[in-house]
């Protein structure tokens, strides 16, 4: 079975994956919002979504392999990778499965996630501002309603989508900041 979902909150994604497993569907692959599930015993696995630490001195493929090996030593299984995200699962019968058990490591995880959303949001913002400038340049000195072309409308819609994505990324960053504050209290 395949399901399409977009999550900006790793905790909600984990909750959904674990709920799907309780209903008898084990996630086995993921790509760009498309989750692939196969039948399993209800509640057979516990899923965790992770963004490992960024160790700049080690190549990402080697760092991820070392981290995956470390997590697998706990009895968990590596499911898949998407971008910076790694998804693991562990058979529920083998016991509790938490990747971050202390407050400081949880705070560090949410800071990494927030940093990623802020960086991507700022990059998206620079592209949106550039495209906004292009639109204003195209439209300057024209009676817009009389001379809008299909390309003008397409570019305008793309810019609106870009600003919506920027707003979503900054909203997620704000929510992560609140989550970090709650953890520290």
Short description:
The protein has 185 residues and is of the alpha+beta class.
Taken in chain order, the helices and strands follow as EHEEEHEEHHH
* Sheet with most strands: strand arrangement: 1-3-2
Provide the structure class.
alpha+beta
Q: What's the overall average pLDDT, rounded?
A: 87
Shape: elongated
How is the main sheet built? 3 strands, antiparallel
Structural Rg: 21 Å
Q: Please give the count of helices.
A: 5
Assess the beta-strand content as a share of residues. Answer: 15-25%
Low-confidence stretches at least 5 residues in length (pLDDT < 50)? Answer: none
> How far apart are the first and last residues' alpha carbons, in Å?
41 Å
Q: Count all strands and give the number.
A: 6
In which range does the helix fraction lie?
A: 55-70%
Descriptive report:
The chain is α+β, with helices and mostly antiparallel strands. Helices cover 55% and strands 19% of the residues. It has five helices and six strands; from the N terminus they run βαβββαββααα. The strands form two sheets. The chain has a three-stranded antiparallel sheet. It has a three-stranded antiparallel sheet with strand order 4-6-5. A hairpin with a 2-residue loop joins strand 2 and strand 3 (34-39). The chain is elongated, with a radius of gyration of 21 Å. The model has no long low-confidence stretch (mean pLDDT 87).
